[in-house]
Amino acid sequence: MDLVGTIPPHIGNLSFLVSLNIRNNSFQGSLPNELSRLYRLQILKCSYNEFSGEIPPRMGLLNKLQILFLNGNNFEGSIPQSLSNMSSLQRISLAYNQLSGSIPSFIFKMPTLQQIVLHSNKLSGPMPSLDFNASSLEYIDLSDNELSGELPMFDHLPNIQYLSVAKNNFSGVVPEIGNLTMLSWLYLNENNFEGTIPSSLLKCTQLESIDMGKNNFTGRLPPEIGNLTMLKHLYLSWNKFEGSIPSQIGNLQKLKLFGIDFNYLSGPIPYEIFNISTLRNLLLVSSNLSGHLPSNMGLFLPNLRILTLGGNELSGMIPNSIVNASQLFILDLSWNSFSGSIPKTIGNLRLIQILNLASNKLTIQSPEPRSIFSSLSSCKKLRVLFLHNNHLNGILPNSIGNLSTSLQMLKLHDCNIKGNIPEEIGNLSSLIGLSLSHNKLGGPVPTSIGRLHKLQGLLLYGNRLKGSIPYTLCHLGSLDTLSLSRNELYGHLPACIDNMTSLRNLDLAFNQLTSSIPLSLWRLKDLLLVDLSSNSLNGPLSLDIGHMNVLRGLDLSKNQITGCIPVTIGGLKNIAILSLAVNRLDGSIPTSVGELVSLEVLDLSYNNLYGEIPKSLEELSYLKYLNLSFNKLQGEIPSRGQFVHFLAASFISNNGLCGEARMQVPPCKGKKAIGIRILKYVSIAMGLMVLGVCLVFLSIKRCKRNTKLSHDTNSMALATWRRISHQELIRATEGFSTNNLLGEGSFGFVYKGTLLEGTTVAIKVFNLQVEGAFKSFHIECEVLRNIRHRNLVKIITACCNMDFKALVLEYMPNGNLDMWLYSENHCLNMLQRVNIMIDVATAIEYLHLGYATPIVHCDLKPTNVLLDEDMVGHVADFGIAKLLGDGVSLTQTMTLATIGYMAPEYGSEGLVSTRGDVYSYGILLMETFTKKKPTDDMFTGEMSLKCLVQESLALSVLEVVDPNLLSNKNDYAAMEECLLSTMGLALRCCADSPEQRIGIENVLATLNKIKLKFLKDISGR
C-alpha cells in the first residue's frame, strides 16, 4: 500500500484492536495521543512512514504492547520516560529517526525486553550502566549515533546474541565480556577504543562476526583467537596491532572475511591462512608483512574473490598456483618486492576486474612482454591494469589492443619499455586513464589514440617520441590532462586544440615545437596549468590570453616569443605561477600585472623589456619569487609590499634601475620632478573622478526611471528584501575575485560572498552583454519572488542598476549534484542519491501543482541541483522557466534548454509543458544512478542513455550503474531491487509522448515507496 495523510484521532475508538501495522506507507504528522486508548494493543508497527514530532509520552499507557516499531520516520526529541511502563514490551525499534538526548537507563531494565534497536539517530552521552540482571535481552544495536564515554560492564547480559555500538565516539578499554556465551555478532568499529583485545572475548565461542576496525587497539593478536571456530567475519583493520599474525587463524575454517590491513604487524603471512577454503576476502594492505607467499597458496582458495596484499615487504616470486583461485576479481600485490616473471597463466583469472602488480621488481619471461598481454586478453572483465614501476624491459606488442574493451585504467609507466606505441592501443575504447611515461618509447604518437573518446588522462612524458602532435588528439573531448613533455616532438600545436573542451592540464614542455601558439589555445577557458616551456615557439602573445581567468600556472619560458606582454594579461586573476623568461619579449611591463592578485611566482628574466617597474606590483601580497633580471628596465625599484623581501639578484643586468643601496643599484635622483609629475596626474585623475560621479548620477537616475516604467511588479517585490548596493557586492566578493567564483552559466557568473552581517551567500551576476541575460534576470525575479519551498534555492535580495544586475541567493556549501557524481573526491551512496532525487521531485511537484500558476523549470540537470550542508537537494536556475498562466497546460517557446535533458517535443516544436520537466527528471534520475551523462560520446546513432537503461532492465541493471554503488556487497540484493524500481520509474518519466508520462506527484509517491522498501530491506539484512 501507499497510503498518505495523517492518522485520525478516532483510531483510539478501536478498543478491541490487538495489532496495528501501517508500515511502508507515506503517513505524515504526529502520532495521535488517542493511540494510548488502545489498551489491548500488543503490536504497533509504524515503520517507514514520514511521521514527525516527538514520540507521544502517553504511549507508555499501552502496558500490553509487545512489539513497538517506529523506525524509518522523522521523530525527534528524547525517548519518553513513560515507555518504562510498557511492562510487556519485547521488541522496540526506533532506528532511522532524529532522536536526541541520552539513552534512558530504564530501557535496559524492562523485564521482558528482548530486542533494542536505536541505531542511526543523534543520541549522545554515555551508555547506561548495566549493573542489573537483563537476562531477556538478546539484541542491542546502538550504532551510528553520537554516544561517548567508556562501555559499561556486560556481565548481566547472559543471553545477548547481537551487540553493536559501531560508529560512535566511545573510548577507553573494552570491558571483559567472557560470560556472554551466547554472543554471535560483535561490532565495535569506528570508535576510539584502545588497549588490547580482551582475553575474555576469546571465550565467546559462539561468535560469528567481529568488527573492531578503525579504532586505536594495540598489542598482539592472541593465538587463542583460533579457538573462535564459528567465526565467519574478522575485521581488525585500521588499528595499531603489532607482532605477527598467529598461525592459529588457520583453525577458523568457516572464515569468509579476514581484514587486518593498515596495522603495524611484522613477519610472514601464515601459510595456514591459505588453507581456509571458505575465505572470500583477505585484506592485508600496508601491514609491514614480509616473507614469501607459499607456492601452493591458490590451491585451497576456491571461493577467494578479493586478495589485497599491497604496501608490505613481501618478496620472492608470485606463485603460479594463484590462478587456481579462479573466483578472484580483485588482486592487489603492489608496493612490495616481488621479483621474477609475471606468471603467464595469470590470464586464467577470467573474472579478474582489478589487477595491480605495480611497484615491484617483476620482469617478463622473454625479451618482449608479448606473453603477459596475450594472456591477459582472455580477461574480458578487466577494468584496471597497473604494472607500473617494474622491470618489464621489452616492447609493447600489438596484442595490447586485444585487452578487454572494458579496460578503464592502464598504467605502464617506469617499466623500461622500448619500441613504438602500437596503433592497436586505439582499440581500448573504454580507457579513462593511460600512463606510459618515463619509458624509452620512440616513434610517433599513434593517431589511433584519438579514438579513445572516454580518455581523461594521457601521460606519455619522459620518452623519446618523435614527429608532430597528431590532430586526432583533438577528438578527445573528455581529456582532462595531456602530458607529452620531455620527448622529441616537433611541428606546431594543432589548431583544433580548442575542441578538447575538458582540458585542465597541458604539459608539452621540453620538446622541439615551432611556430606560434595557436589562438585556439586561449579559447580553453577552463585550463588550470599550461607548460610549453623549452620549445622553439615564436610569434607574439595573443590579447585573448586574458580570457583564461581560472588559469593557475603558465610557463612559456625558454622559447622565442616576441612582441609585448599583452595588457590583457591582467585578466588572469587566479594565476599563481607566471614565467615568460628567456624569450624575445620587448616593450614595458604592463601595470595590469599588478592585478594578478593570486600571483606567487613571476619570472620575466632574459628578455628585452624596458621602461619602469610598475608600482602596481607592490600590491601583489602573495608574491614570493620575482625575477626581472637581464632586461633593459629603468627607473626606481619599488620598495613597498613584497619588494621588501626581494634581493638584488631579482634585478641584476638592468642598467637603468635605481633605488635602495641593498639592491646594488645607484640611488634615484629628481624626486622634485617626480613630485610635480605626480601632482599633474592627480589633478587629471580628480577631474575625471568628478566627471565620473556626474555620469554615474545621471545613469542611476535614468535607470530608476526605466525600472519604474518597465518593471513595477519586480520593484514592489524587491522592496520587501533588504536593499543591497553594487559596492557591497563588490566588497562581499573581494571585487568579484576568481577565488570566490563558484561557477559559470549561460548568462553570467556565480560568486561566493560574505555580506556585512557575516552571512555567506551566492551572488549570481548577469552578463548583460549576452543575449537573453536581461530577460533571464527578470524571469528569475518573477519566479523566485513569489515561491517559497524547502527544496528551492531561496532568493535573499537583488541588485538592479542600469548596467548591473545580480541576485543574492542562499549559499549551498556542498556544491551541485554534477560535482558529486563526477569528481574523484566525492561519492554518493545509494540512500543519498535516492534522497536527493526525492528532494528534486518534491520541488518540481511544488512548481507544477503547489502554486496558483504552474511553473515549468525547463532546464533540469545535475548542475542545477544544489546541495546544502545536510546534503538536501535544492533546485536552482530559473533563468529560462515558463509561467503557463491560469488554465494553460502548454505553450510554445524559443528558449534553449540543455541538449540531452530536454523533452523531444521541446526541441522539435518548441512545446513546453509540465510533462517536459518530467522527461528531464527521468533523464536526471538515470544519470544520478548510472553516472553517465546523456551527452556522453558512447551515445551515438540510436544508442542513448534511455536505450541503455531500457536494455539493462532485461539483462542486469547492475552492469550499467555507477560502480561506486556496488562497494557494499552485503546489500547487493536490496540495491538491485531498488535500482530496478528506480530505473523503471525513470523510463516511465521518459515516454516519448507527453501524455504517456507519469505525473510528478506520482513520481514522488513512487520514489518514496522505493526508498522505504530499500530501507526495510537493508535493515532486515
Structure, explained:
The chain contains 12 helices and 64 strands. By secondary structure, it is α/β, with parallel strands linked by helices. Among the domains are: 553-669, Ribonuclease Inhibitor (Leucine-rich repeat, LRR (right-handed beta-alpha superhelix)), CATH 3.80.10.10; 679-710; 714-810, Phosphorylase Kinase, domain 1; 817-1019, Orthogonal Bundle (Transferase(Phosphotransferase), domain 1). Helix 9 packs antiparallel against helix 11 (972-989). The longest helix has 40 residues, at 671-710. The two termini are 22 Å apart. The model is unreliable at 671-679, 690-721 and 885-895 (pLDDT under 50).
Q: In CATH's first tier, which class of the domain at 817-1019 applies?
A: Mainly Alpha
Average pLDDT metric: 87
CATH superfamily of the domain at 817-1019: Transferase(Phosphotransferase) domain 1
Q: Count the strands?
A: 64
The residue ranges in which pLDDT falls below 50 over 5 or more consecutive positions are 671-679, 690-721, 885-895
Transmembrane segments: 678-700
Subcellular location: Cell membrane
Main location: membrane
EC number: 2.7.11.1
